[in-house]
Amino acid sequence: MVSEAKSYSEPKAVTRRRKLRDALIAAAERMIEAEGLRGLRARDLALRVGCAVGAIYNVFADLDDLVFAVNALTLEQLETTLTVAGGEGVDRQADAIRTLVHLGLAYTDYAAANTRRWRALFDHRLPEGRDVPTWYRANLHRLFDYIERPLRQLAPALDAAPRALLARSLFSAVHGIVLIGLEEKLQSLPLGILREQVTAMIEAFGRGFAVQGGSA
Amino acid sequence: MVSEAKSYSEPKAVTRRRKLRDALIAAAERMIEAEGLRGLRARDLALRVGCAVGAIYNVFADLDDLVFAVNALTLEQLETTLTVAGGEGVDRQADAIRTLVHLGLAYTDYAAANTRRWRALFDHRLPEGRDVPTWYRANLHRLFDYIERPLRQLAPALDAAPRALLARSLFSAVHGIVLIGLEEKLQSLPLGILREQVTAMIEAFGRGFAVQGGSA
User: Do residue A176 and residue B175 have CB atoms under 8 angstroms apart?
Assistant: First the structure.
């Protein structure tokens, strides 16, 4: 049903669309970094990019879609900080705990250095009935794999399902410490102290978990 | 400088003011429970209470002040769930861990049953430069005392300052698990599983911490 004329003009339109999409994402990144998720308004966005407000919705179904695109880039940035020098020491348990601490500190440092971007990952609330896109959820779960590996080392007998659940919980625990640690309302902690707390909590958890995992 | 007439009329004005204050807090509680913090708008509030919008600001400096009043009541509700049957068993360490688990589960249950009220404690962001009232911060810190007591049992040699810091971190860790556990975006966990996770994490932390605290 595509006319010849339209078929010829399509590549150009696609390029234009992709350029607009990239420009909108880049502008949204800057706005979120400057003012957080609340700073993201369609009118300001259109003004920055130099397009009509309506043009935004030719590229993204809505602003939530645009936020997912930005948050996916944030997850990618975060992932690049998680590359771990493989623990090849003699003590498997100590290695695994060291890896978990390394991951926890990488997360802490990223959040401290990119607070508004990082907050946008969690502050983004969807309207009722709207689901998180599957591709985005898959990206998120890939990050949990980094935690699962050392957990497997700590408790080799633990099944995959409870291990995945525990990885989520350990991530959540560290997230909570960082979240409240950086929260100005409760007096934020200096980064050095926050890092010490994350280290102490993960080490205590790791030792206690290895004991339980070994005996269970 | 108070005229006789004004002095006579004051008690009545004070009563009226207090009644309006109570009515505004009660209405704000219902609105936050129904729609969360975002549902709190001055105009709707005035409509519900049957006063002029301006009258709200005769009683509260701004809506943030009103939110602090509601959040203080939430903290009080939360505190009533934390009353712990004193652990009088033979094993001090096991007792302390049991107490920590009890506190963590009470927190989990409160958050699950009163999700919007509980979220309002954390979603409430202040404008730049505006500080949390001292009285509110004191209420918050009182809650951390509940966690410090069992930590003292677990590691009697630990000084007060690092213990207070650790109590905050342990609270934050449990908060993170509950926060992300109840988060629909990441598929929320059934309450039973969430409670198991909180229990497992606190138990592992408690054991590991007792080992470290004992040797440090």
Answer: yes
**Closest by CA position to A174, among listed A78, A85, A50, A45:** A78
Return the amino acid letter for A205: F
> What is the Cα–Cα distance from A102 to B155, expressed in whole angstroms?
25
- What is the rounded CA–CA span in Å between residue B111 and residue B194? 11
Distances (CA, A) of B82 to B29, B139, B158: 21, 14, 24
pLDDT tens column, B64-115: 999 999 999 999 999 999 876 555 667 888 999 999 999 999 999 999 999 9
pLDDT of residue B215: 39
Q: Are B78 and B107 in contact (CB under 8 A)?
A: yes
ipTM above 0.95, yes or no: no
pLDDT, tens digit, for every residue of A160-184? Answer: 999 999 999 999 999 999 999 998 7
Which of B165, B201, B209 comes nearest A197 by C-beta? B165
Structure letter (DSSP) for residue B133: P
Q: Identify which of B84, B124, B119 has the alpha carbon closest to the alpha carbon of residue B103.
A: B84
**Contact residues, chain A, for B195 at CB < 8 Å:** none
Instruction: Give this prediction's pTM.
Output: 0.88
Calpha distance A19→A24 (Å, rounded): 9
Q: Which residues of A196-206 are buried (b: 16+ CB within 10 A; e: fewer)?
A: bbbbbbbbbbb
The pair of structure tokens assigned to A33 is 């970094």
Residues 102-161 of B with CB under 8 A from A: 124-126, 132, 137, 140
At B15, list the tokens.
């009563």
Residue (of A94, A213, A210, A208) closest to B93 by Cα position: A208
Question: CB-based contacts of A140: which residues, under 8 Å, 6+ apart?
Answer: A75, B186
